Protein backbone atom coordinates (compact mmCIF):
# COMPACT_ATOMS: atom_id res chain seq x y z
CA UNK A 1 0.00 0.00 0.00
CA UNK A 2 1.82 3.12 -1.19
CA UNK A 3 1.83 6.25 0.90
CA UNK A 4 -0.02 9.07 -0.86
CA UNK A 5 1.98 12.24 -1.28
CA UNK A 6 0.49 15.37 -2.78
CA UNK A 7 3.59 16.09 -4.86
CA UNK A 8 3.29 12.75 -6.71
CA UNK A 9 -0.34 13.21 -7.71
CA UNK A 10 -1.14 13.73 -11.33
CA UNK A 11 -0.61 17.22 -12.65
CA UNK A 12 -3.69 17.21 -14.86
CA UNK A 13 -6.88 19.00 -13.95
CA UNK A 14 -9.42 16.85 -12.12
CA UNK A 15 -12.39 15.76 -14.23
CA UNK A 16 -15.96 16.93 -13.81
CA UNK A 17 -17.55 15.80 -10.55
CA UNK A 18 -14.35 16.06 -8.53
CA UNK A 19 -15.80 18.88 -6.43
CA UNK A 20 -18.50 16.56 -5.05
CA UNK A 21 -16.16 13.79 -3.85
CA UNK A 22 -13.13 15.88 -2.88
CA UNK A 23 -14.35 16.70 0.68
CA UNK A 24 -14.87 13.02 1.49
CA UNK A 25 -11.48 12.04 0.06
CA UNK A 26 -9.85 14.88 2.01
CA UNK A 27 -11.50 13.54 5.16
CA UNK A 28 -10.11 10.07 4.42
CA UNK A 29 -6.69 11.63 3.90
CA UNK A 30 -6.90 13.26 7.32
CA UNK A 31 -7.98 9.96 8.90
CA UNK A 32 -4.98 8.29 7.24
CA UNK A 33 -2.60 10.91 8.66
CA UNK A 34 -4.10 10.44 12.11
CA UNK A 35 -3.75 6.66 11.81
CA UNK A 36 -0.12 6.96 10.72
CA UNK A 37 0.71 9.27 13.61
CA UNK A 38 -1.18 7.22 16.19
CA UNK A 39 0.84 5.98 19.14
CA UNK A 40 1.68 2.28 19.16
CA UNK A 41 2.22 2.11 22.92
CA UNK A 42 0.39 -0.82 24.47
CA UNK A 43 -0.35 -2.48 21.15
CA UNK A 44 0.94 -5.72 19.76
CA UNK A 45 3.36 -5.41 16.84
CA UNK A 46 0.75 -6.53 14.31
CA UNK A 47 -1.91 -4.14 15.65
CA UNK A 48 0.07 -1.02 14.78
CA UNK A 49 -0.94 -1.05 11.10
CA UNK A 50 -4.56 -2.13 11.47
CA UNK A 51 -6.02 1.39 11.52
CA UNK A 52 -4.09 2.32 8.39
CA UNK A 53 -5.41 -0.79 6.64
CA UNK A 54 -9.00 0.03 7.67
CA UNK A 55 -8.81 3.59 6.35
CA UNK A 56 -7.26 2.31 3.12
CA UNK A 57 -10.12 -0.19 2.75
CA UNK A 58 -12.78 2.45 3.48
CA UNK A 59 -11.34 4.88 0.95
CA UNK A 60 -11.11 2.25 -1.79
CA UNK A 61 -14.62 0.98 -0.99
CA UNK A 62 -15.97 4.52 -1.23
CA UNK A 63 -14.59 4.92 -4.77
CA UNK A 64 -15.78 1.42 -5.73
CA UNK A 65 -19.30 2.11 -4.48
CA UNK A 66 -19.48 5.47 -6.26
CA UNK A 67 -18.53 3.96 -9.61
CA UNK A 68 -19.89 0.40 -9.63
CA UNK A 69 -22.82 0.42 -7.19
CA UNK A 70 -24.31 3.92 -7.32
CA UNK A 71 -22.93 4.93 -10.74
CA UNK A 72 -22.45 8.46 -9.36
CA UNK A 73 -19.09 9.22 -11.01
CA UNK A 74 -17.81 8.98 -14.57
CA UNK A 75 -15.16 6.57 -15.84
CA UNK A 76 -12.78 9.50 -16.29
CA UNK A 77 -13.14 10.55 -12.65
CA UNK A 78 -12.85 6.93 -11.49
CA UNK A 79 -9.61 6.48 -13.45
CA UNK A 80 -8.32 9.80 -12.15
CA UNK A 81 -8.94 8.70 -8.54
CA UNK A 82 -7.12 5.41 -9.06
CA UNK A 83 -4.24 7.06 -10.92
CA UNK A 84 -3.90 9.68 -8.18
CA UNK A 85 -3.66 6.98 -5.51
CA UNK A 86 -7.00 7.52 -3.80
CA UNK A 87 -8.08 3.91 -4.35
CA UNK A 88 -6.38 0.56 -4.66
CA UNK A 89 -7.00 -0.73 -8.19
CA UNK A 90 -5.95 -4.30 -7.36
CA UNK A 91 -8.29 -4.54 -4.37
CA UNK A 92 -11.17 -3.09 -6.38
CA UNK A 93 -10.49 -5.62 -9.15
CA UNK A 94 -10.86 -8.43 -6.59
CA UNK A 95 -14.15 -6.99 -5.28
CA UNK A 96 -15.63 -7.38 -8.76
CA UNK A 97 -15.00 -11.15 -8.70
CA UNK A 98 -17.43 -13.61 -7.18
CA UNK A 99 -16.42 -14.73 -3.69
CA UNK A 100 -14.28 -11.68 -3.00
CA UNK A 101 -17.02 -9.04 -2.60
CA UNK A 102 -16.15 -8.38 1.06
CA UNK A 103 -12.37 -8.85 0.87
CA UNK A 104 -10.61 -6.69 3.47
CA UNK A 105 -7.08 -6.62 2.03
CA UNK A 106 -4.98 -8.42 -0.56
CA UNK A 107 -2.67 -9.96 2.04
CA UNK A 108 -5.55 -12.13 3.28
CA UNK A 109 -5.68 -14.09 0.02
CA UNK A 110 -1.93 -14.48 -0.47
CA UNK A 111 -0.96 -17.99 0.63
CA UNK A 112 2.71 -17.10 1.10
CA UNK A 113 1.85 -14.95 4.14
CA UNK A 114 0.33 -17.82 6.14
CA UNK A 115 1.88 -20.74 8.00
CA UNK A 116 0.22 -23.52 6.03
CA UNK A 117 0.11 -21.98 2.55
CA UNK A 118 -3.62 -21.24 2.63
CA UNK A 119 -5.67 -18.06 2.89
CA UNK A 120 -6.13 -16.07 6.09
CA UNK A 121 -8.45 -17.19 8.90
CA UNK A 122 -10.76 -14.22 8.28
CA UNK A 123 -11.65 -15.75 4.89
CA UNK A 124 -13.21 -18.82 6.58
CA UNK A 125 -17.02 -18.52 6.83
CA UNK A 126 -18.21 -17.99 10.41
CA UNK A 127 -20.55 -20.97 10.13
CA UNK A 128 -17.54 -23.28 9.80
CA UNK A 129 -15.81 -21.95 12.93
CA UNK A 130 -16.43 -23.01 16.52
CA UNK A 131 -19.32 -21.31 18.32
CA UNK A 132 -18.30 -18.24 20.30
CA UNK A 133 -14.82 -18.06 18.79
CA UNK A 134 -13.75 -14.59 17.73
CA UNK A 135 -11.37 -14.45 14.82
CA UNK A 136 -9.02 -11.55 14.05
CA UNK A 137 -6.83 -11.38 11.00
CA UNK A 138 -3.16 -10.87 11.83
CA UNK A 139 -2.59 -8.70 8.77
CA UNK A 140 -5.39 -6.15 9.02
CA UNK A 141 -7.52 -6.91 12.08
CA UNK A 142 -10.53 -8.02 10.04
CA UNK A 143 -13.06 -10.21 11.86
CA UNK A 144 -14.36 -12.02 8.83
CA UNK A 145 -14.53 -11.07 5.16
CA UNK A 146 -15.85 -14.29 3.64
CA UNK A 147 -18.63 -13.62 1.13
CA UNK A 148 -20.90 -16.23 2.67
CA UNK A 149 -21.08 -14.43 6.05
From TrEMBL:
GO cellular component, one term: spliceosomal complex
Transmembrane helix in keyword set: no
Localization: Nucleus
Biased amino acid composition, Basic residues: 1-11
Annotated spans, Disordered: 1-23
Keyword list, A-Z: Nucleus
GO biological process: mRNA splicing, via spliceosome
Pfam families for this protein: BUD31
Predominant location: nucleus
Record carries keyword Nucleus: yes
InterPro entries: BUD31, BUD31/G10-rel_CS
Family statement drawn from the similarity comment of this UniProt entry: Belongs to the BUD31 (G10) family.
Descriptive protein name: Component of the SF3b subcomplex of the U2 snRNP
Organism this protein belongs to: Coemansia spiralis
Phylogenetic classification of the source organism: Eukaryota, Fungi, Fungi incertae sedis, Zoopagomycota, Kickxellomycotina
Amino acid sequence: MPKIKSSKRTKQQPPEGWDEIEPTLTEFEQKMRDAENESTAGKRKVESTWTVMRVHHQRSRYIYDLFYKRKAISRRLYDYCLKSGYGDANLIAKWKKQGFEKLCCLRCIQPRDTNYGTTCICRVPKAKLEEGRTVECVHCGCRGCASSD
